[in-house]
Q: What sequence folds into this?
């Protein structure tokens, strides 16, 4: 989150943006005081569950709605009051919204025609765009004659044809099947780096967000909870929601018992077990905390091995084999559920039987201290 | 399929065939026809007059009535489109409950008799009627407006009578319109007018065509409205035909007039269908 101090220029700047729909008892706060900087040439993702406000934010940038409070700047220029057709941004809609009465080529040329571009330029641009999305031979077809993935690419070509400074993508991959989605993820990344356009990508799929984004913002209930690079957010979630929404996390209620040299000690609730964590990692002053531990950062210890950090006793429950790795479900000594994920470096690990006593090693730097 | 063909045969083909047959029969002295005397005199009389000396002269009286009917029908269709499209668009943009209410409102005029509604227009349009009084009160005009019993009055009355037939099909096609397409048009730089022209109207075209046909065709044969609002100087085809079966007691000529109209409409429709064979939006 050091990016706020970065010198790269800001493409989209949201300043204390709020959006309220309806009035009185029907009032819905879609966005609450959202401030955000999205940099030029960045693949930026708005990630959150449905209803978190991510699509609302996108629509405010596109100009389909106006903020109730606050304002949005595009490359330093206020967008307030500017209708969508005067904004140098284009959108790839979730449903693609291709014009059914126009051919693929006419769909792509639509925006250029609206801008009054010369017809010769339009023709060559359309060809270029269709080549970019690998649909050069499909110009004369109607959208209904294309598959979902092809329609998706037409929607991309159409949005890119106007050479927007910022491209908005509203869950563009959600209607595609898994295989196609993976292909399109790569395709989008390729297009973004080839065109150098700022992409603002909305999704509820955390994996998609992690693999595609330069940076992402995690949103919930109209608020931006955390902004950062994928590894930033995965390794250092700032709230329980972020830790829970992105990846798999063990949550352990605990209380702080001691501050040490640069670190702190936490007692696991209902036990005497003490867990050590890096103090500077914990920007938390309250005594009651939640410790978050990623399953892949903990490990099961062989009977007599010792390790730096915390070791807690537990009982093994189910063992679930995933091919590349195995997840061990276990109960800690205080009855809390805990998962350990281990890579299957040496083939399937079937040495442990459900019900056997195990020891869990939690390295000090694997513990993330959360306020809630 | 079977019952449908039966119904069409009994209620459409048989009466139509009967009328076609009547049109080539000799007229009876006091109305009716002489069933065993055939002649094409009725069709001849549509275009020509026989003088006393037996010479033949072109008679454009009936042609001009047809021309007036076409002109009035085209004007009415245009007016209905002009008023009906924005109305349908407005309706389609409302919430579901408001939409249902507005559709209900559009159909309310059907609850009263066409005759009554046309009499109402007489009260509105006549000299010293509500329209004139209002214009005078607004200071726009001070003399009598003299619009009743003119083609203008017929145009107003027809537009009013057939407007729902324009609004409802257009509404039906606009209601299905995905508003995200309009947003997409805005997003690509189209202003409201461009979005309307390039996206909304093309996608509503099936409804616009259906509505125009539903207004234009019955307008051509309209009888009540021209009878009441047009007076004696602005005959339309419907009144002419009615005359032949009534006062003129010339059934074959009335039938022939009807079949000339049918032929013209049929040719126009076929030409139209050929022109727009590839329906847009599909």
A:
């Amino acid at each position: 989150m050091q990016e706020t101090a970065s010198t790269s220029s800001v493409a989209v700047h949201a300043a204390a943006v709020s959006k309220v729909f309806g009035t009185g008892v029907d009032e819905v706060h879609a966005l609450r005081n959202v401030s955000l900087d999205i940099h030029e040439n960045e693949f930026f993702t708005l990630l959150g569950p449905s209803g978190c406000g991510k699509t609302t934010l996108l629509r405010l940038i596109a100009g389909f709605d106006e903020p109730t409070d606050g304002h949005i700047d595009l490359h330093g220029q206020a967008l307030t009051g500017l209708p969508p057709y005067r904004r140098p941004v284009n959108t790839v809609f979730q449903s693609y919204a291709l014009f059914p009465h126009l051919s693929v080529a006419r769909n792509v040329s639509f925006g250029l025609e609206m801008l009054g571009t010369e017809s010769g330029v339009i023709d060559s641009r359309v060809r270029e765009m269709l080549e970019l999305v690998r649909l050069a031979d499909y110009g004369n077809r109607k959208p209904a004659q294309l598959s979902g993935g092809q329609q998706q690419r037409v929607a991309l070509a159409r949005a890119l044809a106007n050479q927007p400074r910022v491209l908005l993508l509203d869950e563009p991959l959600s209607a595609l099947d898994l295989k196609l989605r993976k292909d399109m993820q790569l395709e989008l990344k390729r297009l973004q780096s080839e065109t150098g356009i700022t992409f603002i990508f909305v999704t509820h799929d955390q994996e998609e967000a992690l693999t595609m984004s330069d940076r992402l913002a995690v949103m919930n209930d109209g608020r931006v909870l955390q902004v950062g690079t994928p590894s930033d957010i995965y390794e250092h979630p700032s709230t329980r929601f972020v830790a829970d929404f992105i990846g798999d996390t063990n949550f352990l209620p605990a209380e702080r018992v001691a501050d040490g040299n640069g670190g702190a000690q936490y007692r696991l609730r209902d036990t005497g077990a003490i867990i050590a964590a890096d103090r500077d990692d914990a920007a938390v002053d309250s005594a009651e905390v939640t410790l978050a531990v990623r399953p892949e950062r903990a490990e099961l210890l062989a009977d007599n091995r010792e390790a730096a950090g915390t070791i807690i006793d537990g009982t093994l429950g189910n063992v679930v084999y995933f091919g590349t790795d195995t997840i061990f479900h276990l109960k800690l000594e205080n009855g809390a559920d805990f998962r350990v994920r281990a890579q299957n470096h040496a083939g399937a690990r079937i040495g442990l039987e459900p019900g056997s006593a195990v020891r869990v090693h939690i390295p000090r730097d694997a513990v993330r201290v959360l306020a809630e | 399929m079977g019952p449908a063909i039966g119904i069409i045969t009994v209620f459409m083909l048989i009466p139509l065939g009967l009328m076609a047959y009547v049109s080539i029969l000799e007229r009876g002295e006091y109305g009716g026809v002489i069933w065993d005397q055939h002649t094409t005199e009725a069709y001849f009389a549509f275009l020509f007059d026989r003088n006393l000396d037996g010479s033949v002269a072109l008679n454009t009286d009936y042609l001009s009535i047809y021309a007036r009917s076409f002109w009035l029908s085209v004007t009415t269709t245009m007016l209905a489109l002009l008023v009906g499209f924005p109305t349908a668009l407005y309706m389609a943009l409302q919430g579901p409950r408001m939409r249902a209410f507005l559709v209900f409102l559009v159909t309310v005029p059907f609850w009263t008799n066409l005759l009554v509604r046309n009499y109402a227009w007489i009260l509105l349009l006549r000299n010293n009627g509500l329209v004139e009084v209002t214009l005078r009160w607004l200071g726009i005009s001070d003399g009598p407006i003299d619009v009743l019993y003119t083609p203008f009055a017929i145009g107003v009355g027809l537009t009013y009578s057939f407007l729902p037939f324009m609004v409802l099909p257009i509404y039906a096609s606009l209601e299905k319109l995905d508003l995200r397409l309009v947003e997409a048009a805005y997003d690509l730089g189209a202003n409201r007018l461009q979005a309307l022209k390039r996206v909304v109207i093309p996608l509503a075209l099936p409804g616009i065509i259906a509505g125009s046909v539903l207004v234009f065709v019955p307008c051509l044969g309209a009888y009540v409205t021209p009878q009441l609002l047009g007076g004696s100087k602005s005959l339309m085809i419907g009144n002419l035909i009615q005359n032949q079966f009534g006062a003129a007691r010339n059934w074959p000529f009335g039938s022939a007039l009807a079949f000339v109209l049918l032929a013209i409409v049929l040719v126009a429709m076929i030409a139209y269908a050929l022109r727009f064979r590839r329906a847009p939006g599909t």
Observations:
- Helices of chain A lie at 54-62, 104-114, 119-132, 148-161, 178-195, 206-212, 230-235, 240-245.
